[in-house]
Amino acid sequence: MTPEEFRRYGHEMVDWIARYWENLENLPVTPDVRPGEVAARLPEQAPETGEDFTAVLADLDRVITPGMAHWQHPAFFGYFPANTSGPSVLGDLVSAGLGVQGMLWSTGPAATEVETVVLDWLADLLDLPKRFRSTSSGGGVIQDSASSAALVATLAALHRAGGGAWRTEGVRREYTVYTSTQAHSSIEKAARIAGIGDRNVRLVEVDEAYAMRPDALRAALDADRAEGRIPALVVATIGTTSTTAVDPLPEIGEICREYGVWLHIDAAYAGAAAVCPELRWSHAGLEYADSYCFDPHKWLLTGFDCDAFWVADRAELVQALTVLPEYLRNAATESGEVIDYRDWQVPLGRRFRALKLWFVLRWYGAEGLREHIRSGVATAQRFAEWVRADERFEIAAPHPFSLVCFRLRDSNASDDSGASDDSDAANDSDAANEELLRRVNATGQAFLTHTRVGGRYVLRLAVGAPSTQERHAAGAWKLIQAAADDLDAG
Ligand code: PLP
């Protein structure tokens, strides 16, 4: 493809994306496809000779759009949001065009330095502790995901817990990891990949608000120490996946300090809220953390993949991960004056992801980002009011951010079931909630997901797509009420 051809088709492609965004509201939020249906629309083999690009463009409408769940749809309320935005897409486009591989400072000085500065900016915007800044002992780096951030934190924690022995010996000793029963599965996965194993991950009990109980954490640490195991890492969550519970960092932080354990904070979704001063209460106690991450690709208008990960002491992280083969040696690295981000992550290679974040911060400014978060929170709080006002429903957990967990009440759901005992009634009620969700999603006009809390089936409505307005949440609420009416009518 010549630059001139690229220009022509590139313009068409940008037009296609703009049209897609303009038309999103008219599409069903989730596709009506069966497994294999998309693949069946593709030829069995790759083309022998090159095709005209217009054929590729046509297939976007024929194959891709009808086979997609539309995460940017204003009525997409499932999981957590996966935002993108114009400046983010353009940043990715430039990154792809530059095709830079920024594993070392010397292989992409601007890629490295823009990333360092942008993460310092972001640390300021979230009001993170000073020691996370590159101008202090720490610094930030972009990982592909919060899962990778958890893995890197686990490796650094093992390095610290083993007094350096982990690097040479591996996981010869019994290292342990602590997180709450509500923590994201990526914490257990990281421990497994790091060789710690499921049996040495302690899932600490939570309180009635689904936040980690510090007394239970302490008891677990004591029990392991008494048996000769080495507590390596505590992962606290700001905004758990099921319900957005916030673990009590000040108490957990004190305990980690006392036991000399690495404290990683997973704020994958809710961290973005800290751009708003009124939501920063959730970060109280962050000064105890050794590492912290959140996903701008969830709720800060930056497309996947973009996890912002900070450490308080970059030297510890680099010592844990660095391996310097001859073929990567260069004068800049040896000067000790530069950051080589390859030492801050698992892969060697890395693309220029900071560009999209830089574009987003410059386009929206702090004010624009705050507005986005505030509008999501306000819409979710309004939705919670509607739920509360309908006596058939109940709120299932505190909802400080833009996620509301709710369900049909047991009595309502199981009135006519003839259930013989409490557990039958609970099962019927869970089944009614599941059926309600199925009916709402089947309309294609909104999409919600579910979780289980306290063993019970709960519906989740997460607000955060850039184009979502209150009227879209109101539309979803109407569908939910209509489905409840139908269930009532039998
Ligand atoms: N941590 C929390 C609290 C999450 O909610 C999620 C995803 O929803 C993750 C980690 C994993 O995020 P990622 O896809 O960036 O690995």
TrEMBL record:
Pfam family, one: Pyridoxal_deC
Coiled-coil portions: none
Modification type N6-(pyridoxal phosphate)lysine: residues: K298
Gene3D superfamilies membership: Aspartate Aminotransferase, domain 1, dopa decarboxylase, N-terminal domain, Type I PLP-dependent aspartate aminotransferase-like (Major domain)
Top-rank taxon: Bacteria
GO CC, one annotated term: cytoplasm
Co-factor(s): pyridoxal 5'-phosphate
GO BP: amino acid metabolic process; carboxylic acid metabolic process
Signal peptide: none
MF terms (GO), sorted A to Z: aromatic-L-amino-acid decarboxylase activity; pyridoxal phosphate binding
Record keywords: Decarboxylase, Lyase, Pyridoxal phosphate
PANTHER family: GROUP II PYRIDOXAL-5-PHOSPHATE DECARBOXYLASE, MIP05841P
Family note: Belongs to the group II decarboxylase family.
Protein name: Aromatic-L-amino-acid decarboxylase
